[in-house]
């Protein structure tokens, strides 16, 4: 979740630490405070920023990423896994930039940017 005081550099560093730990799938979403008693939101990154982070993750070697303001860690996790295993999977994930690494040559394959 972003929006709790982190910097863009810390997001990139965290992605690299996750990749170094052999994490293959990752989600990035916007933190939304459930109530006024919870941690306040620090920022709302522009939607394009989520696309930048998604591309960085694929360049780092992640098999797949769902990234967008409304993405949650459990957000269609099965769909992200299926897409990472089958780049021809045509299922959509509205509200997220979805990227998977190509299965054979790890070239970036943008499946769908369903932000509308």
Question: Which structural class best describes the helix and strand composition?
Answer: alpha+beta
How far is the N terminus from the C terminus? 21 Å
- Provide the number of structural domains: 1
- Rg (CA only): 14 Å
Global morphology: globular
Uncertain runs: 104-116
- Strand fraction equals 15-25%
What's the total count of β strands?
4
The helicity comes to 25-40%
Q: Overall pLDDT, averaged?
A: 83
Provide a count of the helices: 3
SSE order, as H and E? HEHEHEE
Largest sheet: 4 strands, mixed
Read across the widest sheet, the strand sequence of neighbours is 1-2-3-4
Brief write-up:
The protein is built from 3 helices and 4 strands. It is an alpha+beta fold.
Give your account of this protein's structure.
With 116 residues, this protein is of the alpha+beta class. It is 31% helix and 16% strand. It has helices at residues 8-20, 47-60, 77-85; strands spanning 25-28, 64-67, 97-101, 108-113. A four-stranded mixed beta sheet has the order 1-2-3-4, sandwiched between helices. β3 and β4 (108-113) form a beta hairpin. α1 (8-20) runs parallel beside α2 (47-60). It is globular. The relative contact order is 0.18. Residues 104-116 have low confidence and may be disordered.
Keywords:
4 strands, 3 helices, alpha+beta, 31% helix, 16% strand, disordered C terminus, 116 residues
Outline the secondary-structure elements.
Blueprint: H1 8-20, E1 25-28, H2 47-60, E2 64-67, H3 77-85, E3 97-101, E4 108-113
